[in-house]
Amino acid sequence: MSKRQESKYKINRRLGVNLWGRAKSPVNRREYGPGQHGQRRKQKPSDFSVQLMAKQKLKGYYGNISEKQFRKYYEEAVRRKGDTSENLIDLLERRLDAVIYRMKFAITPFAARQFVSHGHVTVNGHKVNIPSFLVRDGDVIEVREKSKQLAVVLDAAQSGERDVPEYMEVDHRHMKGKYLRTARLSDVPYPVQMEPNLVVEFYSR
Q1: What one-character-per-residue DSSP string does 146-204 give?
Q2: How far is CA 175 from CA 49, 105, 115, 121, 147, in A?
Q3: What is the distance between the terminal CA atoms of the chain, rounded to a whole angstrom?
Q4: SS3 label, residue 60
Q5: In angstroms, rounded to a whole number, what is the distance separating the alpha carbons of residues 97 and 93?
Q6: Per residue in 135-160, pLDDT tens?
Q7: What tens digit of pLDDT does each residue of 13-31 get?
Q8: Check whether domain 95-183 has CATH 3.10.290.10, yes or no
């Protein structure tokens, strides 16, 4: 797993959006970028910069995925049948750390990645500690028994910041859930507008 070099809130300020919709985000107070040049007047962005920003937003949202891994998702999305941008979203949403975040077993994607890495999660009864593991339709994801009373899990489950999407079901009483079906872009509860079509344009230049 690549080490994340920047804090999640610095990512927010650099991109100029509240990427995860969190109340603590500094973007809520300062909409300009970080650093001494953050308040400069913005010029009209080029097509390349618009596409690059779309890629950075999507990468950042899922815990700042490495460029190498993110490109692999794009290549797999191209290889699959159907719309490439929709395939890309489906692959990203099937990451185990993304599923843990969506099911509200962790408060942020970064916390979800750490939670999986530390061995707190099972898939279909088997421990999985690989955050990039891709779940399939019908897979049952559960917090391990010894981890169900951890404060971080209970706090996340009770958080009112976001809802569990319809393509999965969750039982927070027993800390388990099921991945039901393919996630479409229109199904995913992003706090900001995501444009995977621009990401596809970026890589297909």
Answers
A1: GGTT-HHHHHHHT--S----TTEEEETTTTEEEE-SPPPGGGS--SS---HHHHHHHHT
A2: 41, 8, 14, 10, 10
A3: 28
A4: helix
A5: 9
A6: 999 999 999 999 999 999 999 999 88
A7: 666 666 756 666 555 455 5
A8: yes
